[in-house]
Specification:
Layout: H1 2-27, H2 57-64, E1 69-72, E2 75-80, E3 83-90, E4 94-102, H3 123-126, E5 127-129, H4 133-137, E6 144-146, H5 160-167, E7 172-178, E8 181-189, E9 200-206, E10 216-222
Antiparallel strand pairs: 1-2, 2-3, 3-4, 4-10, 5-6, 7-8, 8-9, 9-10
Length: about 230
């Protein structure tokens, strides 16, 4: 009889302890779920105010004229100072790819100038005049802007780190060369943004040297085959 009472007491005590433990656990505040921030990435639509896969040659000629333009099979090139703008065509009029590049090294010519002043480009191609005659009459002066940039403002001569700031880390980085100069190719695929946007952007950068950051020397924006 005593053993039976002892067993019942033990079972009751275990039940009370279990109930108390469950109640205490219910009172503890739950830790908030940790949300992982998505990796920053951004696609690009235009280069030199042209959208590959959508714009036509006529629009480029309207923007930049034909004075500094040369043409070959499937290619149009505007040369202005140290920069060149190249259009690779699909058919006779559709723009498949736009490339903006330095045609020779700038350092030897402007080695004593800071990077923000290395802009030896004539007005017709490098700058677009946005003032109207009415604004001039009102004394507002000329309003110039650089039109040879990406839509997000990446321009030749910019530090390489700006590429990552604007577009996130590239899908790949690989060694490359141009005119015997060792470079690094930053490759971006924009297929995640849908089929109606340019699908690829490639940026060539010089390599960091003696504490000086690498800088952008070529940008290509390309649409899928039309």
């Amino acid at each position: 009889m005593a053993g039976s009472c002892s067993d019942r007491f033990l079972k009751r005590a275990l039940f009370v302890l279990c109930l108390a433990s469950t109640f205490a656990s219910a009172q503890l505040p739950k830790k908030p779920a940790v949300k992982k921030s998505p990796t920053h990435r951004s696609n690009e639509l235009t280069l030199a105010e042209l959208r590959p896969g959508r714009d036509r040659v006529a629009e480029a000629k309207t923007k930049f004229g034909s004075k500094d333009m040369t043409a070959a099979d499937g290619v149009l090139v505007w040369n202005c100072g140290n920069w060149a703008l190249r259009l690779d065509l699909e058919g006779k009029t559709a723009i498949r790819a736009v490339t903006l590049s330095e045609v020779r090294s700038v350092e030897t010519k402007a080695e004593n100038l800071p990077p923000d002043r290395i802009r030896d480009i004539p007005l017709p191609c490098y700058l677009k005049m946005t003032s109207t005659a009415l604004e001039l009459e009102k004394g507002k002066g000329l309003n110039f802007k650089n039109s040879w940039t990406t839509g997000k403002g990446l321009v030749l001569g910019d530090p390489a780190e700006k590429v990552a700031q604007l577009y996130g880390e590239p899908d790949s980085r690989s060694p490359s060369t141009k005119d015997g100069q060792p470079l690094e190719l930053w490759y971006y695929a924009f297929d995640w943004a849908g089929p109606d946007v340019p699908q690829v952007m490639e940026v060539l950068c010089t390599k960091e040297k003696e504490g000086q950051p690498g800088r952008v020397v070529e940008i290509t924006l390309a649409a899928p085959s039309l």
